[in-house]
Specification:
The chain is mostly helical. It has a domain of about 55 residues. The protein is about 65% helix and about 0% strand. The protein is built from three helices and no strands. The chain starts with 14 loop residues before the first helix and ends with a helix.
Length: about 80
Amino acid sequence: MPAIRPIGHEDRLSLIEHLDELRTRLILCIVVFMVAFSFCYWQNDAILETFNGPIESTQNLDGCNARPPGRRLEQGLTEHRANE
């Protein structure tokens, strides 16, 4: 696979040269995407912990504003539908 060479605005390329350049750039993009996807798949736990950290820190996890004990979300939805 030839290296990507810079093409100036004044350069004139044939159709075959344009297609060759496109193929080279598409292959490079696919390889980079596969490497990035593989890294993210391998490190998915660390990535999720990084993104979930701020979410968990802003949530009220101590239960002060939680639903009353014994009342589940489905029960609240059922009661809301019955009141309509």
